């Protein structure tokens, strides 16, 4: 709150500068609203991460105005470095805010996303390494086998990733009995675990962590293989049942990236949870956690922890 003497001084300055009291208060309201929206988003991002990785993210801390998540190993990961970045910089050196800021659109889409709209394509690697394995041998020790079509494929067993892939494939197998388009777009799979770097970068592929699956390949599936027109044509005809089932099991779809990767599904529960719980526009008249399942005790515990850490 602005104290009366200070307010009078500010008003005088504004009057002489040609700005009215109404304009000043209006600008203050916009600033306060923007701050509230930032805080809402930050708390929601942190909550979704804690729900998504309950055995690996153990705390939230605020220190000198900076907010961190604390991992089980003791490592702290910064929420927001407050740096201005272009899209390429966010891919190369992201913080948690960068990773979570683009809202993932659940359900059917009929066109390519706008330029550089790639929700889920930005990844914070310290979190992935904490959860799925910090090096090749650690990752491979966490792999199990999942059947896709008539073959078995390696997938990370940690944090229910392999379990959710198995459930998604089983559900799609049932649906495919009455829809041949589903089975013809699933198998043979183009691959799961592959310890490699993303082409042209120094960043590990999500396949290197065993948390991504590429289904049956079509030459229109990838932005480096096909034109935008071909990619959009492919998206329009792609069975929505496949997308819906994978999203139900916490996988993001590369068909919802402007850099489209239509055969690609990636286990990213934090991205899907934010879309599921907080897909609507922020209403600051309601609690920041409005939309979360409060009947779950762990969710209530996480909310209390975040509230305590960030006042």
Structural description of this entry:
- The chain is 42% helix and 12% strand.
- The chain has twelve helices and eight strands.
- The chain is α+β, with helices and mostly antiparallel strands and 311 residues long.
- The longest helix has 32 residues, at 21-52.
- The chain has helices at 4-16, 21-52, 87-92, 96-100, 125-132, 136-141, 161-175, 180-184, 228-237, 240-248, 269-277, 297-309; strands at residues 57-63, 66-71, 76-78, 143-148, 151-156, 212-214, 251-253, 264-267.
- A hairpin with a 4-residue loop joins strand 2 (66-71) and strand 3.
Structural class: alpha+beta
| Low-pLDDT windows of residues | 1-32
Helix content: 40-55%
Radius of gyration, taken over Cα atoms and rounded to an integer in Å = 22 Å
The major beta sheet can be summarized as: 3 strands, antiparallel
How many DSSP E strands? 8
**Number of DSSP helices?**
12
Tell me the layout of helices and strands.
Blueprint: H1 4-16, H2 21-52, E1 57-63, E2 66-71, E3 76-78, H3 87-92, H4 96-100, H5 125-132, H6 136-141, E4 143-148, E5 151-156, H7 161-175, H8 180-184, E6 212-214, H9 228-237, H10 240-248, E7 251-253, E8 264-267, H11 269-277, H12 297-309
Antiparallel strand pairs: 1-2, 2-3, 4-5, 6-8, 7-8
Short description:
Helix content is 42%, strand content 12%. Helix 2 crosses helix 11 and helix 2 packs across helix 12.
């Amino acid at each position: 709150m602005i104290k009366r003497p200070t307010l009078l001084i500010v008003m005088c300055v504004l009057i002489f500068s040609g700005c009215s009291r109404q304009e000043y208060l209006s600008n203050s309201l916009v600033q306060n609203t923007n701050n509230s929206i930032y805080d809402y988003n930050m708390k929601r991002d942190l909550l979704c991460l804690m729900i998504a990785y309950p055995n690996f993210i153990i705390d939230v801390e605020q220190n000198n105005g900076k907010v961190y998540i604390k991992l089980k190993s003791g490592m702290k990961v910064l929420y927001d470095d407050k740096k201005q970045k272009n899209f390429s910089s966010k891919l190369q050196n992201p913080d948690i805010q960068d990773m979570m800021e683009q809202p993932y659109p659940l359900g059917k889409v009929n066109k390519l996303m706008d330029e550089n709209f790639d929700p889920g394509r930005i990844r914070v690697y310290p979190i992935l390494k904490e959860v799925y394995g910090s090096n090749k041998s650690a990752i491979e020790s966490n792999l199990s086998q999942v059947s896709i079509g008539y073959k078995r494929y390696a997938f990370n067993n940690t944090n229910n990733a392999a379990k959710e892939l198995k459930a998604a494939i089983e559900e799609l197998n049932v649906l495919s009995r009455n829809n041949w388009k589903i089975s013809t777009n699933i198998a043979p799979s183009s691959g799961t675990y592959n310890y490699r770097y993303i082409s042209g970068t120094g960043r590990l592929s999500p396949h290197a962590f065993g948390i991504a699956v590429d289904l049956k390949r079509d030459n229109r599936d990838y932005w480096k293989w096909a034109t935008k027109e071909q990619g959009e044509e492919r998206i329009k005809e792609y069975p929505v049942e496949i997308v819906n089932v994978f999203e139900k099991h916490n996988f993001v779809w590369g068909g919802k990236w402007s850099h489209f990767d239509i055969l690609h599904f990636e286990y990213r529960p934090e991205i899907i949870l934010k879309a599921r719980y907080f897909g609507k526009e922020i209403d600051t008249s309601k609690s920041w956690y409005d939309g979360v399942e409060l009947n779950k005790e762990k969710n209530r515990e996480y909310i209390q922890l975040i509230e305590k850490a960030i006042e």
